[in-house]
Design brief:
By secondary structure, this protein is an all-alpha fold. The chain contains 4 helices and no strands. This is Phosphoribosyl-ATP pyrophosphohydrolase.
Length: about 110
């Protein structure tokens, strides 16, 4: 039996069960859950980086967004609050839409 030891979407056990396969799961403690959310976010970001076609890239972005929502719930922050923080940072420092790539800055 393959061992995964990773955070999965909530319906994965049900999907496995429907195949008739045996499996084991456990519910993570809050600190473990946050750690696993961060690890999963890294995994999904790497998959986004490796995606070669738009459809795959957008699916990885959807996974990342789902992890953002789960992480916000752990921190007790609403998506609206996150959006306000994003907008505030964008107002102060700009966004990333212009594709500016910094090469170097003179030392003092």
């Amino acid at each position: 039996m393959p061992t995964y030891n990773k955070l999965v979407r909530d319906l994965i056990p049900q999907i496995i069960e429907e195949t008739g396969k045996e499996y084991s799961t456990r519910v993570l403690a809050p600190k473990e859950y946050l750690l696993e959310l961060k690890l999963k976010m890294t995994e999904e970001a790497l998959e986004f980086n490796e995606a070669e076609v738009q459809k795959d890239a957008v699916e990885e972005l959807a996974d990342i967004l789902e992890l953002v929502h789960a992480s916000l719930a752990v921190y007790g922050v609403s998506y609206e609050e996150l959006e306000q923080i994003r907008l505030s940072k964008k107002e102060k420092r700009g966004g990333f839409s212009d594709g500016i790539y910094l090469i170097e800055v003179e030392d003092e």
